[in-house]
Amino acid sequence: MTQAATFHLEMERFIRAPREKVFDAFTSQAALAVWHCPRGMSVLEASADARVGGKYRIVMGGRDGAKHIVGGEYQAIDRADFLAYTWTWESGEMPREIKTLIEVTLTEKEGGTRLQMRHSGFPEARERDSHMGGWQSVFNRLSDYLDPAGSAGTVTVIGDPRSSYCRTVRMALEEKGVAYTLKPVPPHSPEVLAHNPFGRIPVLTDGPIALYETRAILGYIEEAFDGPSLLEKSGPIARARCEQWISLINCHAYDTMVRRYVLQYLFPKGENGQPDRAMIDAALPEIAAQLQALEDAYGDRDYLAGTALSMADLFLAPILTYVGMFPEGAELLEKCPNVRRAQAVMRERPSFAATQPQLG
After folding, report:
1. Which of 57, 55, 131, 58 is nearest to 93 (CA)?
2. Does the global pTM surpass 0.90?
3. Computed from CA positions of residues 131, 135, 136, 137, in that sequence, does the dihedral angle turn out positive or negative?
4. Do 218 and 329 lie in a common domain?
5. Left (φ > 0), alpha (ψ -120 to 50) or beta: where does 177 sit?
6. Half-sphere exposure of 39 (CA within 13 A, CB side)
7. 56: domain range?
8. How far is the C-alpha of 105 from the C-alpha of 102, rounded, in Å?
9. What is the largest CA-CA distance in the chain?
């Protein structure tokens, strides 16, 4: 093939699988139907005639019903070392007349295979760059497919498991049924700073993709993975209420309930190593007001923003668990039967039990 331009994309991944299995994943029609699409999409159709001159075609579908169709022709096949094939969009990223070339080189590496991919022939840098995130996500799915650990081979939560925000992310993954690896490290550790310049936890990595800020992470989990939705689905008002409560929890309740109350007990900095009573006493009226707002919002429902679990519940449950561990918080919660009922429902969820932190 004659390259139409000099713009190209190069990527490298380590896959924990034998070279032959990685190669076959690129040439098997059944395998392509499982992994060859970005997260949040599915392969609707796949065909592959894996021989020089043979053709392949993949139809990818989004949750919005949109279809992205790509096809091409195998240019070189050397099992299990090298594979080259053309890449042409029938619909989706680029006009049909633009043909690019993909070259995949596989080499053995201890514990698996080094995959090197070169995608060349892009007419503009922006077309090349637009493929970067897609290929990263596609190779995450390839790793899920071949790695014995499944998605835990790529999906990692970095942070202290005692953090309420870390627990929120972990509960979201559990609710979605996504296997993941937990890397327990404190804020501002090198592992965190490598991805978040502000040093805050948690960080979520999915292969080379790294995200911080818990609401952004939950948004990615919702869109990237199958499983029950974490968004309220009963209409725009309920969805707006969900976002309202997430904002309130992050901007107000966390500061009052965790920073100014719970942490005074967990990490006392008052006189003689005791909790700072002035800080606690100042926070209690605000906690009472916030709990009353939650009490009114729940009413006779078990979930905060509607009739089913949503992200708002995942943000709130870990915080209220801590509040109820200390005397004044437990006393205030006793006055809020709706809140206590809803939190009892949360404690029965498998995601809550699976993420229970060990407290020293």
Report:
1. 131
2. yes
3. positive
4. no
5. left
6. 25
7. 7-148
8. 10
9. 79
